[in-house]
Write a structure and sequence with these properties.
- By secondary structure, this protein is α/β, with parallel strands linked by helices.
- It is 45% helix and 8% strand.
- It has a five-stranded parallel beta sheet with strand order 2-3-4-1-5, sandwiched between helices.
- The protein is globular, with a radius of gyration of 22 Å.
- The protein starts with 41 loop residues before the first helix and ends with a helix.
- It binds adenosine-5'-diphosphate.
């Protein structure tokens, strides 16, 4: 937590945040059909504004300011991620399809024993695509995507956080199907809740668990509106062992997102190079695939970005007067040189800890 974080109070007048900063492409269900981001027009913006007003009008007993804050800061509209944007992770993708995407799209087929889960955890080393997967799930299931990191919930919104948590769940139900994505969820559901932890953090954790239980209880009810069953809490963490046991059990599915395997690294590297001027042969790429064993997805992205600077670095000040077509292509030596500084960010030891946790607590399949 950030000790300097001040309790955040909303301004009494409609907050300036109400004015959209950009012209976002919307991911809320009714608007997800819009396909070309370059078309993101005022029409879409108006549509989202109308939808927000409509939801605010219908919701009863929700803290108005918290709801506005969520609609403006926490519902994500821009840059939808699709399955194809994510290299590899086939097992995780199919598990997410079965647990979330298909049930959300065909609630009529997923009832009774086939009821969708209300909690799913993505765990694994940092930079392996957990956030990307969550975003892709939201896009592919045409869900409203609520995204927040646990630390911003406990610091940025300190003082307002409980209200915010309540409003978050109420809005998620109102805008269902919804995904509530909480990154770094370990810091919200930590085991050390009683040992000198901030009283405020403990209250937020409790409120979160209460709201989540209510959702689970409502979904279990016979006459429940199908929409309540289409609200998923999707948590991501690099520290799954820090989550307390009771909270852990609520994540019915716990999906391990490992470091990329050989085939995944090949796809990822090829994708990164596909729109670049480069001179790498298939053999060069195979060499890099081998040499990047132990790299995470984000390490590979960082490596490729650094290697892409190679041809420009070689120019020195001449860069200022060189035309783009005279810049030499990226080659394998640029990658090899970048490997001296861009190293795997996950240690072997750390990896072992993940694998052991996955064996003990992960969902198979
Ligand atoms: P995590 O949430 O697991 O820490 P992210 O999903 O935020 O990781 O990924 C960080 C960055 O790493 C992404 O923005 C992307 O550039 C890259 N990346 C990681 N994994 C993949 C993957 N499987 N396919 C494509 N890019 C990836």
């Amino acid at each position: 937590t950030n000790p300097s974080a001040q309790p955040q109070r909303n301004s009494p007048s409609p907050s300036p945040r109400l004015t959209p900063k950009t012209s976002p492409k919307l991911m809320s269900p009714a608007l997800s059909e819009i396909s070309d981001p370059s078309d993101a027009s005022e029409g879409e913006e108006d549509e989202w504004e109308l939808k927000k007003k409509d939801v605010m009008r219908k919701l009863k007993g929700v803290d108005q300011q918290a709801a506005e804050q969520i609609l403006n800061d926490i519902v994500i509209h821009g840059d939808p991620v699709n399955w194809d944007d994510i290299a590899g992770l086939d097992q995780a993708k199919s598990s997410l399809k079965e647990a979330v995407v298909y049930p959300f799209l065909r609630p009529d087929l997923f009832m009774g024993l086939r009821e969708p889960v209300l909690g799913m955890l993505l765990f694994g080393p940092p930079g392996t695509g957990k956030t990307m997967l969550a975003r892709a799930v939201a896009t592919e299931s045409k869900s409203t995507f609520f995204s927040i990191t646990a630390s911003s919930l406990t610091s940025k919104y300190m003082g307002e956080s409980e209200k915010l948590v309540r409003a978050l769940f109420q809005l998620a139900k109102a805008l269902a199907p919804s995904i509530i994505f909480i990154d770094e969820i370990d810091s919200l559901l930590t085991q050390r809740a009683d040992s000198g932890e901030h009283e405020a953090s403990r209250r937020i954790k409790n409120e979160f668990l209460v709201q989540w239980s209510d959702l689970q209880a409502a979904a279990a009810g016979k006459n429940t509106d199908a929409d309540v069953r289409r609200v998923l809490v999707l948590g991501a963490t690099n520290l799954p062992w820090a989550i307390d046991e009771a909270a852990r059990r609520r994540f019915v599915r716990r999906q391990y997102i490992p470091l990329p395997e050989t085939a995944t690294r090949r796809v990822h590297l090829s994708k990164l190079l596909s729109h670049q001027k480069h001179a790498l042969t298939d053999e060069d790429i195979e060499l890099l695939v081998t040499k990047t064993e132990g790299y995470s997805g984000s390490d590979i992205t960082a490596l490729a970005k650094d290697a892409a600077m190679g041809p420009l670095r070689a120019l020195g000040d001449a860069l200022l007067t060189t035309s783009p077509d005279q810049v030499r292509p990226i080659d394998v030596n640029d990658f090899i040189a970048s490997m001296r500084t861009i190293k795997p960010s996950v240690s072997q030891n750390n990896l072992k800890t993940f694998e052991e946790w996955a064996k003990e607590y992960g969902s198979s399949g």
